[in-house]
Design brief:
Glycerol uptake facilitator protein; 0% strand
Length: 252
């Protein structure tokens, strides 16, 4: 296996294990003897930060090896943005999906180590969904719009942060913070995907056929948003080789 594929496997594994694991193990913790269920839990803010931190740390750890995609939509968006060669798309996506599935398996194995654990509720294993499987009851259209728009924004952030005009070495920071903000917006709506691999890994292990049946939306919507972002950035925002960069006077 090429080192790039191993890096994508490990990076996606870390994103799903860290992000979805925080939602399963630490988002809402029951207090022995009574009390509010989230007295000692991370809540939505903590889960959003966990996803952002996995991308930030993973990008610094593996970005110099594989580019740090960890997401099929990102890989596809970078192809659309002419930043990534399409010949590598299939093995990248395969590595990402396998990494997500392995992470989901480990989350499930660890979760079963607690007495009384069961795959129950609308989003077992931090799955994504709409309708009855939306954390706040949002329907199909709302989920579709949310995932398209937020994946579009996520790819614009990635393309902008890695642009040749951007400060070198800092790209993981705005990308990680961007993903954190995306989760704060959309956890109540879809439990936040913007990543088909992340959605697939936990859906296949959740034991709920309805959630597996909803999985195509969490491939189609992020891919649409990513392709649109690649097109927009390349054609309207990216600087041509013969174009002079705008001057900025910070003293004004």
């Amino acid at each position: 296996m090429k080192k790039e594929y191993i890096a994508e496997f490990l990076g996606t594994f870390w994103l799903v294990f860290g992000g979805c694991g925080s939602a399963v193990f630490a988002a809402f913790i029951a207090v022995p003897g009574g009390g509010n269920v989230n007295d000692f839990g991370l809540g939505y803010l903590g889960v959003a930060l966990a996803f952002g931190l996995t991308v930030l740390t993973g990008a610094y750890a593996f970005g110099h090896i594989s580019g740090g995609h960890f997401n099929p939509a990102v890989s596809i968006g970078l192809v659309a943005g002419k930043r990534f060669h399409s010949k590598n798309l299939a093995p990248y996506i395969g590595s990402q999906v396998v990494g997500a599935i392995v992470a989901a398996i480990l989350i499930l194995v660890i979760a079963k180590g607690k007495d009384g654990f069961e795959l129950a509720g609308s989003n077992p294993l931090a799955t994504n969904g709409f309708g009855a499987h939306s954390p706040s009851g949002y329907g199909l259209l709302a989920a579709l719009i949310t995932e398209i728009v937020l994946t579009f924004i996520f790819l614009i952030i990635i393309l902008g942060a890695t642009d040749k005009r951007a400060p070198a070495g800092f790209a993981p920071v705005p990308i990680g913070l961007g993903l954190t903000l995306i989760h704060l917006v959309s956890i109540p709506i879809t439990n936040t995907s913007v990543n088909p691999a992340r959605s697939t890994g936990v859906a296949l292990l959740c034991g709920n056929f309805e959630l597996i049946a909803q999985l195509p939306l969490f491939w189609i919507a992020p891919i649409i948003g990513a392709i649109a972002a690649g097109y927009v950035y390349t054609n309207f925002l990216e600087q041509a080789d013969n174009e002079t960069a705008p001057e900025t006077d910070l003293s004004e």
